[in-house]
Amino acid sequence: MNLSIFVIVPLLMLLGLWLARNDKQVRGVMVAGASVLLGLSIYLVFAFLEARETMPADQAPMLFTYCVPWFEPLHINYSLGVDGISVVMILLTSIIVFTGTFASWQMEPMKKEYFLWFTLLSIGVYGFFISIDMFTMFMFYEVALIPMYLLIGVWGSGAKEYSAMKLTLMLMGGSALLVIGILGIFFYSGAQTFEILDIAHHTNGAHAIPESVQNVFFPLLFIGFGILGALFPFHTWSPDGHASAPTAVSMLHAGVLMKLGGYGCFRIAMFLLPAATHGFWIKVFLVLTTISIVYGALSACVQTDLKYINAYSSVSHCGMVLFALCMMTETAATGAILQMLSHGLMTALFFAVIGMIYHQAGTRDVRYLGGLMKIIPFLSVGYAVAGLANLGLPGFSGFVAEMTIFVGAFQNADMFHRVCTIIACTSIVVTAVYILRCVGKILYQKVPNPKLEKLHDATWDERIAVAGLIACVAGLGMFPLWAEEVIMDAVGPIFSVIM
């Protein structure tokens, strides 16, 4: 399978959107393109599973590889390939793009321009997950970040200009650290290209990067990617960005874009600098991620804006991804990728329902919302499902991911790791507090707000988005083994290098 198709299809969507002359044509282009991408991602999963059966991971860590020299003087190649982690991330991206298209069905104003930038954002995300050349990966990373400024600054709500600028400055600061780290790895490794597997071969051979040098570049890369993954104390851009972003952008941002942070930490920082993962810095980041988990959950408890509640919840759950990686066990790392997949689905569902309620009610303040289960039962059930998945109820995706993480974390027998794990586990209780309180308040407790009586339940386009995400959250929770096996198949070879 030629992986370039995941970049070509969005490029054709951009062309189609540019040629579209009315809203009907714009919607047609988006639905057609998003449907094709979803179909291709599902086909990729089956093609990957079939190919992996005949070719074990230790023989070919990456499948469907493709390489074309891009800029030979600097050894830059357009190199593509996927393993199990990439495959599930591409599937997640396609689901969010598809459901986000229907969640933005009524987007006004400048629908055409909005979808142009939304599609460009998706190109960056797809390109990042299919790239195995560090420079190409970084280029797509930047493509994914740039549209966020306009999508929030133009189509957002609240203090949108402030939020857009804060997000852009924070993430660009992280990008500066990534440039230093990537170039440092390339020049010190002695590799002939920026390809990850080529560099990994050099950094684990006779000419491995000295540990002292790895200890310099490792924190730069981990923080650079960690900023996007809402690593404490660099998380402050996230709640403001989520709260101001339009619905589909919040879905893609929290559901997929933040996952680039954990993916980059694992694929580049830890995989290419294995000696540094056993040193001082990994313990520092383990403490910071533990703080992220608890701080995000506690902060969500005191918020009154539905989007801020979910945004701080995302800080906590994305912190759990980095926390699991820092635990340095295969089980925990598998749980980290499952958490990326699970959180992407359930937070997209959260933001979709919140956006639909806000579009009608004109408020996201929990103090002015109540009795919604009777007024808009479909959207209320969607919100309840997202909340139950978020707090880790068995049968939903959150339970599978969190239990895998904590089981893997407890495999470390020393006191330091056990204390961090126990502290992180307290977030489960705190999450239950703010989720159940919020669900009970806005769904069942009546408030004197006559505007709520005029609300209507989800339209057909909104039902497609919400029902699709509910099916995915429940499906992953009840049938997680296929995803876990695909992910473990990719985590094993990486850990054979790290450990």
From TrEMBL:
Entry's Gene Ontology molecular function annotations: oxidoreductase activity
Topological type in the membrane: Multi-pass membrane protein
Organism superkingdom: Bacteria
Transmembrane segments: 29-49, 84-102, 114-132, 138-155, 167-188, 216-235, 256-274, 280-302, 309-330, 336-359, 422-444, 464-483
Keyword Glycosyltransferase: no
Domain NADH:quinone oxidoreductase/Mrp antiporter transmembrane residue range list: 132-420
Chief location category: membrane
Enzyme class, broadest EC rank: oxidoreductase
Keywords linked to the UniProt accession: Membrane, Oxidoreductase, Transmembrane, Transmembrane helix
Keyword Manganese: no
One matching Pfam family: Proton_antipo_M
Localisation per UniProt entry: Endomembrane system; Membrane
E.C. number(s) listed in UniProt: 1.6.5.-
NCBIfam families listed in its UniProt record: NDH_I_M
UniProt similarity note: Belongs to the complex I subunit 4 family.
The protein, known as: NADH-quinone oxidoreductase subunit M
Organism expressing this protein natively: Segatella sinensis
